[in-house]
Amino acid sequence: MDLLIKNGNVVTPTDTFKADIGVEGGKIVAIGSDLPKKAKDVVDAKGKYVLPGGIDPHTHMEMPFMGTTTVDDFEYGTTAAAFGGITTILDFAIQPKDKTFLDTIKLWRGKADPKVVIDYGIHLAVTNLTEDLVKEIPKVLSAGVCSFKLFMPYRKEGLMSDDGRIYSMLEESRRLGFLVQLHAENNAVLEFLIERNVAAGRLSAEYHAKSRPNFVEGEAIHRGLVLAAATGGNLYIVHMSTKEGLAELALMKAMGANVYGETCPHYLTLTDEKYLSPKGRRYIMSPPLRSKDDNEALWCGLADGTLSTVATDHCTFTNAQKDMGKDNFTKVPNGVPGTETMIPVLYSQGVGQKRISINKMVEVTSYNPAKLFGLYPRKGTLNIGSDADIVIFDPKFEMELSVKNLHSKIDYSIYEGFKVKGMPTYTFVRGKPVVYDRKFVGKKGSGKFVPRTKHQPLE
Ligand code: URP
Ligand code: ZN
Ligand code: ZN
Question: Mutate which of 71, 152, 239 to test ligand 1's pocket (most atoms within 8 Å of Cβ)?
């Protein structure tokens, strides 16, 4: 045996039990009590949780956006992810307007393959949907890419898809079995509000949020859900931030549509008060931070299953990049870091505060993303035959989050000074250690592209 993890508390979405886990050839080969001690490496996990590796289904590494490029490349970004207990990321390949989907995948794999230290997959972020490209979709699915993001906003940035295109992709998703991911904000209204604020000289960071009030997301989510129900398509709303959107999703789920929602740690834990601080622009992302009521509603949505996943939307811009919009919020590149802090923040604020169980944490950070994005049962579970993507999590490990102890290339943390109790201490990808007792032991380029199968609906 290559690796034996002894005496840990193994966590699944439904159970927590004491067991040893044996690994050989990158796969889990044994789970049980008192497995024979002979292995090349034996790690004692007594008093620790043993979790299926986290899957972060929403990252933006080396992404050109709003006149600049995210600073975390695939090496920095996946190293940070590994320290946070993530063993697979799903990154958005942004379609250059003049490129086909297959060319876009090639472009993204060219950036990622030499650098990733954990496994990764690709979503196609559609910016220019033509009839020819719709015909290309079966080949894209065969290339292992089975999810497509469409943007309702960002018209001026050249990313927006209109409702007709969203409708047609939802029709195709039903026919071919892929998942449509939707960034839901009402573009016309937010553009109108931005223009009015800019004209009145209201240019500080708080006007980013004031230009995108809750209903801007709620209405767009409603519209997306109606289109999904009308077509019978498969819809996943990314980075949900509002109680209004959540209520729309709950209703459409109750009506039986195949629709899902994702939220992010920052929408669960931070509020729009951050925009009032002198460095408020660091917190500019879209949709923006909301109120305490929204935070709590989203926690409830996770606990009751309305929301299926937590993802990070890891999208890193340095202070200097954020300063592009020092005097005008419309020029601030949108996005915040998160892939290293997701699991510690969820554990401390969710499990630690009894908002969710540790089993729910595993469900929304590993099992559900694996199922929805066609990675299951290779990933997302600790089962015989699955990839040995395993995290040892120490519930007693205390840390004050700071740019000084995080591993992204970014030069600040949105959680500076935030105290967490509970940290991943070991991260194994296909049985190989990437983080070992909080030390990086991985290798650039050792991660693999994971071709995915079709989307599997959640029960
Ligand atoms: O502000 C955000 N969310 N930036 C990343 C791009 C996106 O819309 O996901
Ligand atoms: Zn988005
Ligand atoms: Zn995003």
Answer: 239
In this structure, what token pair is assigned to residue 405? 């102890």
The dihedral through the CA atoms of 446, 371, 423, 391 has a sign that is negative
Q: Is the CB of 315 under 6 A from ligand 1?
A: yes
In short, whether 60's Cβ falls inside 6 Å of ligand 1 is: yes
CA 23 to ligand 3 centroid distance, Å = 34
Instruction: Output the pTM of the full model.
Output: 0.98
pLDDT less than 70: residues of the chain: none
Residue with tokens 């699955």: 386
Structure tokens at 53: 């590796």
Ligand 1: residue of 150, 159, 315 to mutate (most ligand atoms within 8 A of CB) is 315
- For the CA of 183, the closest atom of ligand 1 is 8
Instruction: Tell me what pLDDT residue 113 has.
Output: 98
Domains assigned to the chain: 3-51+385-440 (2.30.40.10), 73-372 (3.20.20.140)
Ligand 1 atom at minimum distance from 149 CA: 9
Whole-number Å distance, alpha carbon 178 to ligand 2 midpoint, is: 18
pLDDT tens digits, one per residue of 70-79: 999 999 999 9
Residue type, 123: H
Within 10 angstroms of residue 319's Cβ, the number of other Cβ atoms is 13
Ligand 1, atom 4, residue with closest C-alpha: 335
The atom of ligand 1 lying closest to the CA of 58 is: 9
pLDDT tens-place string over residues 289-343: 999 999 999 999 999 999 999 999 999 999 999 999 999 999 999 999 999 999 9
Q: Which ligand is nearest to the CA of 63?
A: 1
- Please report the pLDDT score of residue 83 as a whole number: 99
Residue 341: which of 314, 323, 315, 372 has the closest Cα? 314
